[in-house]
């Protein structure tokens, strides 16, 4: 394993400096890696940009997230668990090379970045994610700040448990103090709500609310049947990852609106599985023409209007 220029617990131990030889994979599990990165993006990235991009994909899509807080130390040297074992080895790039690669990825529109700030610790590890189509590019990494190295502020003391966990965690809530510049939503962009929907209930017009209440039980039974058929046509891993936690939210004309547990799952259902789901849905309920997906809140809570698709 090649060495890096980092320090502290992120450094690869001397015992790992022998020539690298991979023993082979144990199982064909993996991270969703968008084809566009291989087909369109890779030819235009430098080798170091490609390494950093791949690490961000692993830390985000690999944990079914659209973005994650990743310190510069982790980009360079990976994550060690509290017991000393390694979750990953990062990119093994030195800090200046990693910073240059991150800036290049942002400048080329491949990733978006968001600085995080709290009163207690000041600037904290930056949130990174791949940029979804329609999501505006950011210029976070090119902006100078009063602290940090080369405009990046990831050089924070590694306290106990800071960055040494079994997997990426959900982004933390930000402090009430003024946020740092160039904030970008860490989730995939959501479509604009239907401007013709003037319901004061937040989702449906009043008459549609009454119809939805009467048909909620029927939709639940219908969706259970659809899921049962989809389960037989998909691999267990795909079904469990993308469809197991979905539920019907109601109907909009001849379209069934299905709730997904996160924006990331919604994006993949809409892009990759919509045609399959629609075909099965039409077999079960010929009166329905289409299916669409929205980000759902708690099962008995309300749906945020901004998450409801056109």
CATH topology of the largest domain: Arc Repressor Mutant, subunit A
Helix content: 25-40%
The number of helical elements comes to: 7
Principal-axis shape: elongated
Query: Which stretches are low in confidence, meaning pLDDT under 50 for 5 or more residues running?
Result: 1-15, 147-151, 153-208, 300-310
At CATH level 2, the architecture of the largest domain is Orthogonal Bundle
By DSSP, the count of extended strands is 8
Instruction: Report the structural category.
Output: alpha+beta
Sketch the topology as an H/E string, one letter per element: HHEHEEHEEHHEEHE
The major pleated sheet works out as: 3 strands, antiparallel
- Reading off the top of the CATH hierarchy, the class of the largest domain is best stated as Mainly Alpha
Rounded radius of gyration (Å): 22 Å
How would you describe what is shown here?
The chain is an alpha+beta fold. Helices cover 31% and strands 14% of the residues. The protein has a three-stranded antiparallel sheet. The chain has a three-stranded mixed sheet with strand order 6-7-8. The longest helix is centred in the last third of the chain and has 28 residues, at 206-233. Mean pLDDT is 74; it is low at 1-15, 147-151, 153-208 and 300-310.
List the helices and strands and how they pair.
Elements: H1 35-41, H2 47-60, E1 68-69, H3 72-77, E2 79-80, E3 86-88, H4 95-107, E4 111-118, E5 122-130, H5 206-233, H6 236-242, E6 247-252, E7 255-260, H7 263-284, E8 290-295
Parallel strand pairs: 7-8
Antiparallel strand pairs: 1-5, 2-3, 4-5, 6-7
Helix pairs in contact: 2-4, 5-7
